[in-house]
Amino acid sequence: MQYDRLFQPLTIRGMALKNRIVMPAMHLMYTPDGNVNERFSEFYYRRAEGGAALIFVGGCRFDEYGGSPGMLSLETDDFVPGLRAFTDEMHKRGAKVGVQLYHAGAYAHSIGNEGRQAIAPSDIFSRFTKEDAREMTVYELHTVIKKGAAAALRAKKAGFDCVELSASAGYLICQFISPKTNERTDEYGGSWENRTRFARELLVAVRGAVGNEYPICVRIAGNDFVPGSNTNIDAVAFAKLLEQCGADMLNVTGGWHETVVPQLTGEIPRAGFAYLAAAVRDAVSIPVAASNRISDPVDAERILALGEGDLVSLGRALMADPDWPKKAEAGDEDIIRRCVACTQGCLSKTFFAEPAGCLVNGYAGREYERLQHRTTEPRNVLVLGAGVAGCEFAIQAALRGNNVAIWERSRILGGQLHLVAAPHAKHAFLTLIDYYRNMLARLSIPVVYGKDASRNDILQSGYDVVVFATGSTPKKLTLPDGCALPVVQAADIMSGKVIAGQNVIVIGGDCVGCECADYLAFESALSPDQTYFLLSQRAEETEKVLSLMDGRRSA
Q: Of the candidates 55, 52, 46, 57, which has an alpha carbon nearest to the alpha carbon of residue 7?
């Protein structure tokens, strides 16, 4: 497929972008002292080499109250030289680079800010940190604005091509504009004009610091998805104000951290929040980027073609495969290693103050270790098993110059990935099977199916090395004599071999048990196709359809 729109250039206030691919700021936990280091730099150098046009780093703290552990810093001039060296190297690799200025407000953990109590528009309890935040004084509010402007100027001196203000995910700016978290009675609370005053003054101050020729971007929440807070209608109104105050680009993401609506995981349809960006784009004349769960080049091109955005924001997609842009442009989309929307390495680890990684890309965050090297002594390698471990090992071994073959006992590739992908929120794992199939073909790695290898087969094969990747076997449950309940494995349910029926007991509450229960619940409810049909045809009242979606069949 031709991605003509995706690879069109775009200029934003003098900043020339070679394509429409943006990598948003992601919390990585790579910079424990706030300074650029090798791990941080090599991670982003790799994404720049992969072809993204504009890469944002951060969030970047600029105030002692508003940061998080492991976060980049622009609090003082001391951080500028290291950042300057970093941006110079990014430019050599063909990417523009911006920095996101970040203040968490009530979302700041005291443990990550030397015990300081978080500051916010009002005295509120944070549902994210489970801590109380105190109301900012007007002096403190103005101090944050001044510090934000000073950090923006440092960013410019450090060679960043633009700055971005973080007004998404429930952070400080969101807290000011939301009636749920802003209970002030002064000029910064109450009316819409007052609640947006802090954001407007911050943007104007940043513009004054960096000058009229320097691009300023803002990442906004397209819908807070929090009852009593701002909706997409409010996001559109806010976007208009930002444009009037001098913003040059808007990046529209989903909701707050505390929302119960999934934001990153597989429950979200591919590009499922593009409609939020579309509403904003229809209301402003500056470029707008669409975000969240855009992992396929076809979805990216469609967003641009339908006018839902001027750019696409690829975060975890570029963590999973930094070469996503180059592969799409070259027509090699079949070997893009797509994000599977699991968040196990990229997000979950950061909640435990651990550096971010990626479930499908073991090199993410480890680029500085220089692990991808060619062998000087190629070996003939036999891999037993074509599941995840077998396929991944075979590909990596072949990329290093070894001669590799796979024997697989079954007739299919992917092993238990087929079971992993069975729950409704995990269908994206099937793309990993496609990636393995296509990469094995590209690397000319033969896969022999239906091969139940014996000891003699292995000994007589002539290979130098044998790698066992034969998977696992589930435990069996034996019921007491006289119990007539049928017992089946979760694999039997999720593979479709067995339909369990209405009354089911799931033994085991770990991942497999929970996902099996979810699978059963989803199986008994209205399907997505049925839901779409009934709603689009107005065949039933909305509440009736919702009850059927929840598995309730009573009228």
A: 52
Q: Give strand pairing partners of 165.
A: 101, 218
pLDDT number for residue 509: 86
Tell me the C-alpha distance between 388 and 336, whole Å. 16
As a whole number of angstroms, the distance between CA 164 and CA 150 comes to 14
| Cβ count within 10 A of residue 241 | 16
pLDDT at residue 480, as a whole number = 86
Q: What is the pLDDT at residue 214? A: 98
Q: What distance in Å separates the CA atoms of residue 277 and residue 239, rounded to the nearest whole number? A: 10
pLDDT for 481 equals 83
Give DSSP secondary structure letters for 227-241.
TTS--HHHHHHHHHH
pLDDT at 551: 72
Tens-place pLDDT, residues 220-240: 999 999 999 999 999 999 999
- Quick check: 316 and 28 in contact, CB under 8 A? no
CA distance 500 to 492: 9
- Residue 35 CB: number of other CB atoms within 10 A? 15
Beta strands in 460-554 (DSSP E): 465-468
Rounded CA gap, 155 and 163, in Å?
7
Q: Cα separation of 494 and 515, whole Å?
A: 9
Secondary structure percentages of the chain, helix, strand, coil, to 5: 35, 15, 50
On whether the CB atoms of residues 421 and 427 are closer than 8 A, the answer is yes
CA-closest candidate to residue 167, choices 138, 206, 131: 206
d(C-alpha 121, C-alpha 108), whole Å: 13
- Residue 15's φ and ψ, nearest 5 degrees, are -90, 110
Q: 417 with 388: CB under 8 angstroms?
A: yes
Question: What's the rounded Cα separation, in Å, for the pair 144 and 506?
Answer: 52
CA torsion sign, 238 to 239 to 240 to 246? positive
**Per-residue pLDDT tens digits for 312-345:** 999 999 999 999 999 999 999 999 999 999 999 9
Q: Does residue 327 come out as left (phi exceeding 0), alpha (psi in the -120 to 50 range) or beta? A: alpha
Partners of 405 in beta bridges: 382
SS3 of residue 395 by DSSP: helix
Tokens 């407007």: give the residue: 200
Contact 20, 8 (CB under 8 A): yes
Give the tokens for residue 484.
Answer: 């007539």
DSSP states of 424-437 = GGGGGGHHHHHHHH
Of the candidates 551, 7, 34, 549, which has an alpha carbon nearest to the alpha carbon of residue 311? 7
Burial status of residue 499 (CB atoms within 10 A of its CB: 0-12, 13-18, 19 or more): exposed
Predicted TM-score (pTM) of the model is: 0.94
Torsion of CA 478, 479, 481, 482, to 10 degrees: -140
Give residue-wise pLDDT tens across range 182-192.
999 999 999 99
Low-confidence ranges of the chain (pLDDT < 50): none
- The pLDDT assigned to 350 comes to 85
DSSP run (H or E) holding 97: strand 96-102
**Contact call for residues 411 and 450 (beta carbons, < 8 A):** yes
Tokens of 497: 């071999």
